[in-house]
Every structure is written in C-alpha cells, then in structure tokens.
Amino acid sequence: MFTGTGTLVNVVTVLLGCSLGVLLGNRLPVRTRDLVTDGLGLVTLLIAATSAMAVLSPALAAEVGDAAPMLIVLGAVLVGGITGSLLGLETGVERLGGWLQARLVGSSGSADRARFVEGFVIASLVFCTGPLTILGALNDGLGNGADQLLLKSALDGFAAIAFAAAFGWGVAASVVTVLTVQGTLTVLGVVLGDVLPEAHLAAVTATGGVLLVGVAMRLLRLREIAVADLLPALVVAPALVSLVAALR
Description:
α7 packs across α8. By secondary structure, this protein is an all-alpha fold. Helix content is 78%, strand content 0%.
C-alpha cells in the first residue's frame, strides 16, 4: 500500500457509513435517534477513558517524574483552552460547518442548519482527536503500514452510521477535517521521521482522552463544551513534556 492509503480508506468508510445512516435515520423515530446518540456518547466515554489511561505510561513517568504527568495534562488543557478560545477555534469550526452546509445542501431552515453544523463538529472531533488518528497517521507516514488507520476506518464507518442517523449529512462533511488532519500528520511523519517519542505521544494521547470526555458530554446533552477550543492542548502537551524534562 502507498503512503496515505489509510486516510483515503477512512474517508470512504465515513462517506459510506454516513450514506447508510441517513437512509436509516429517515426511517427511525426521534426517540430512537436520540437513543443512538446517547449510546455513542457512552461509547465515546469508554474510548476517552482508555485514552486518558496513557497518563500512567511508564515512559512518560520516566521522562518527567511520577508526579508530573497529571499536571502536564492539566496544564495542556488549560493553556490549550485559553489559546483556542482567544483564537476562536470553536466559532471557526462552526462557521466552516455552516459554509459547507450552504455549499453541499443549500439553504434550509435554522433547525436543519444547526443539526448539520452539530453533526459536522461532533463527527470531526470524534474522528480526529482519538489516539488512532495520531498514531495511525504518523505510522503511515513513517512507512510502518496503515494497519492502525484501517482499524480506525472500520470503527469510524460504524460510528458514521449512528451519527448520520442522528445528525444527517453534516457527518459526511467531516471528511474534510479527517483528510486535513490525518493528511497533515502523515506528511509530518514522512518529512520529519519519528516526530514524537513515546513519552510525548503518551501525553498527547492522555490529553486527547480528556477532550473526548468533552465530546461525550455534548453527545449526552450534559453540557455544550467548546471542545474545538481545547484542540491546541494536543500541541501544548508534548511541549510541556519537553519543558519539564529539561528542568529536571
């Protein structure tokens, strides 16, 4: 397989899953679609928990000390959140969703637009903040194969069915985000080689788990957390690992 195959397969599975989900969604009552969304929220919590466990990584503890990993994740979320809020990332993502809705679907009522944007935002975050996104895309770029991205593609395809049943075609628009994020990480893997040491990658994975908790809370309608504003935390986390390691 050539480099980038995993991302292309991921895009195809999301589109296929979304198409099937939209067909099913039109035949499902609102109560059933809400239940599907709740189920996705619960599963997202499970994925978030397994990702966040990377904070206990022996490699991370060896690099920064036993007491620092939790503080690094906390610092990454706080600094990343402040940065993302000042940059208006959540607003930007919502505007992108609205722009895509206007181009792909055309004019529609405010309720349909909000549903499209919500589907785009949630699907983009779920598909692009998990550990398989980072690990898989980097490994693909490093020439280690696309096995992880192929696994992610299968998971995303099934998730797209459920998301699209609840949110419609906005989920399909998330392939723009998938292609951009995973494509960029793959290129980084090709150009820069081993970008993240194991300790740094553990910090990114744990921080991504925290962000996924925010996604789950949105899916469960507990709180509308601006998760997109927290995305810079994924860049801040490895930087803090380097800083703490240098100060030891």
